[in-house]
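Re: the multi-chain job from yesterday

Posting the exact lines I submitted so nobody has to dig through the queue logs.
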Amino acid sequence: MKKYTYSEKKDTRSGFGAGLHEAGQKNPNVVALCADLKGSLKMDAFADEFPERFIQIGIAEANMIGIAAGMTIGGKIPFTGTFANFSTGRVYDQIRQSVAYSNKNVKICASHAGLTLGEDGATHQILEDIGLMKMLPGMVVINPCDYNQTKAATLAIAEYEGPVYLRFGRPSIPVFTDPDQKFEIGKAWMVNEGTDVTIVATGHMVWKAIEAGEQLAALGIDAEIINIHTIKPLDEEAILKSLQKTGCVVTCEEHNKFGGLGESVARLLSTELPSPQEFVAVNDSFGESGTPDQLMTKYGLDTINIVEAVQKVIKRKK
Amino acid sequence: MKHTINELEDIVSQVRRDIVRMVHGCQSGHPGGSLGCAEFLTALYFETMNHSTDFKMDGAGEDLFFLSNGHISPVFYSVLARSGYFEVSELATFRKLNSRVQGHPTTHEGLPGIRIASGSLGQGMSVAIGAALTKKLNKDHSLVFSLHGDGELQEGQNWEAIMFAPHNKVDNLISTIDYNGQQIDGPTEKILSLENLQTKFEAFGWHVITSNGNNMEDIVKALEYAKSLTGKGRPILNLMSTQMGYGVDFMVGSHKWHGTAPNDDQLASALSQNKETLGDY
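And the result, structure tokens for all chains:
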């Protein structure tokens, strides 16, 4: 198992804020919109340097999506920012008609995704957003794994023409990727090459997959770990290539097991390479209040859950 | 003026023929609201707006129009075609398979003149505001126009947008409400009262003007007056009275023709009431 270390923990939303600020410096057409959550989305640096390009919408997410769609007409590249729940489910129809169907160059940026928002509870957490967004034709869905990758993703989507959903979180998590990395939309990142099982992880679960990989190595299991930061379009080639070698897969995501990364992988494998699969994901449930760590434990998203899923799936190999 | 009132009324007559023929041709669509807005859209595209039929999505340097109540697509398509955005003959494909002339307007099929999809109601004002903000950022002094149904104002997103525009001094926006008092299930005042729209918009900070949308002279003047009010710190609302189904006697004023297609006899009757002026497709 390749060794990964980290010297600090940072929140992925701050990676977004830093990326947005830099994208704004690089391209005068980048504009940012927020629905009364400038601080939560870490948009302050952008707003301070480019006040004329920062649009405070107020608590009106539907209006924000429509205004963003309209701003693309004339060449702006709008980044909308609010919590993941209000970025997706609350405004699904606005995104569907005015952004996706109309193919507008809007970047829907969503913080506080998943369980790790923590104490606010289920009304502010969302575990269905990946599913909602990936079902929209033409929508790119990205869920990066740490601060550096979120920053790189934010810069990359500013240069991509078309609608994008970018998902990130609130808690501070290990920063283990390269600060100068190149982010390629739709291109999976090989974290560790292995032979016994493929672990496909996204977002906050990538670090947990690395920890699981170390524990599995101690048990004599050689895990291949792939970071799927882009859930749509899915890097099918990377996943199939890995499964040809390992023959079984565990998918890991901070999302409902229905509609997330695991289902995308299952759809691919069912037609191309039927393989045993286990899902480390929330088991069709809403969240609740608690600390992020407590919630990850209660809902089965800890390192130990990945280890157990690997042990289970390996037994199902032919 | 680019055209005389008589010339504009001749275009309207042809637009009305297009509307009933399109809806008859596929036995589907929304003639009532389309007929009621024939004068308005004709005035807008043939007289009021500075625009080019050499269609570019970004609309730089041009006045832009957004149709929020997308179900009145027949009048929009007819006016776009008659203006020269695409061949008039394409109107015959309305709501038929493999057509660019979809039931509700969309950019998806690449029909020139359409800049946003609409159909799911209540989103158009937000989009128009966004386009207007971009024009300001780009130091583009052309204007943004939008049209909304009155029943559509029951969608809450409108009020988010209505609140936003004056607060942010979006004064390059002229929005029009098609105030015909009808929606699918009946008169708006029976379904969900709109109360006094003028005082509501004024309370939010809009400059409200009123007009008669089925009187060409009045609507042309109203739009010119609205243009004179732009750039003064406030968005402009044109509260435009119309009659659903105007120009076809058996359709006038009834919500029953919101989304009903005429049969062969009804088509003949509707056409007989609107002379052919520019040639049917």
